[in-house]
Design a protein that fits this description.
single chain; 72 residues; alpha+beta; two-stranded parallel sheet; 5 helices; 2 strands; 49% helix; 17% strand
């Protein structure tokens, strides 16, 4: 799956993207986030300091706000 993503990175970079990142995620660390941000040029990040791997479950109210703001 990631291989096909990287094959299309030039197209994808033109799409505004918001990453929602749980800073207590044990699967994906901050260095992983930095990699994505370095390679996904048209992106922003919302860091959730007390959230882990499943922000939609751990902080649903925050996700709703983030989605609304991203769609404005």
């Amino acid at each position: 799956m990631l291989d096909s993503l990287w094959q299309q990175i030039d197209k994808i970079n033109s799409i505004p993207t918001t990453f929602v990142w749980g800073m207590k995620d044990i699967a994906f660390r901050e260095q992983d986030l930095n990699f994505w941000l370095d390679n996904w040029k048209n992106s922003t990040v919302v860091k959730l300091p007390e959230v882990g791997h499943f922000p939609q479950e751990e902080a649903p109210e925050a996700i709703i706000i983030i989605l609304k703001l991203a769609n404005e």
